[in-house]
Design goal:
Blueprint: E1 26-42, E2 53-68, E3 77-79, E4 85-91, E5 94-95, E6 99-100, E7 106-112, H1 114-122, H2 130-146, H3 149-167, E8 172-178
Parallel strand pairs: 4-8
Antiparallel strand pairs: 1-2, 2-5, 2-6, 2-7, 3-4
Pfam families: DUF4230 (PF14014)
Protein name: DUF4230 domain-containing protein
Length: 183
């Protein structure tokens, strides 16, 4: 005889629908992995065992730097008459929004006051962690902006383009970065 209190889970998902395809005109040139510890404390005039919370969250994510090739037209590419020299002018590398790894990111420790716990339970959202994920993502983006990702992306793009054009027979290849580079 089976346990009448045992739970059974069945999946009733529909097929996955492709919503869009985006053509990318960029070179993903550098990626950084980051980890951040987010410590959020909420408090009140009441004692912490009644109201408030203290949460320690570990956020793990990545941020990528890319160079946009969509404007690589017209004056952005200059080739000498003897076809031995080429100069390419690109816009500076940019950072994507950071992506948090939801499998690796987690609440490390959390303490909540009694009324806070009851309120979270009654509101139907006992484990609301959205604010933690958003704050961790913003901190990773800020860290990526201060890191060498953009510089590394530009160096890696320059190296790739020089190697590519030299393999096509160009002897002198110059890759420049300019603000608002357009073709």
């Amino acid at each position: 005889m089976r346990n009448p209190f045992a739970e059974r889970t069945e999946e009733h998902s529909g097929p996955v629908l492709l919503q869009s395809i985006v053509e990318l005109s960029r070179y993903e040139a550098a990626s950084g992995s980051f980890q951040v510890v987010v410590d959020i404390t909420t408090s009140s005039v009441l004692p912490s065992f009644l109201v408030g919370s203290d949460t320690l969250f570990i956020g793990v994510g990545t941020d990528n730097a890319f160079v946009d090739f969509s404007r690589l037209k017209g004056d952005a590419v200059k080739i000498s008459d003897d076809r031995l020299s080429a100069t390419i002018t690109l816009g500076h590398a940019q950072l994507e929004p950071a992506t948090l790894d939801v499998h690796e990111s987690h609440v490390y420790a959390q303490q909540q006051g009694l009324f806070t716990r009851i309120n979270d339970f009654l509101s139907g959202n006992p484990n609301s962690q959205q604010a933690l994920y958003e704050l961790a993502q913003k901190q990773i983006e800020a860290a990526a902006a201060k890191s060498s990702l953009v510089t590394d992306a530009e160096r890696n793009t320059r190296t790739m383009l020089i190697g590519l054009l030299r393999s096509l027979g160009f002897k002198n290849v110059t890759v420049n970065y300019a603000d608002n580079a357009t073709g």
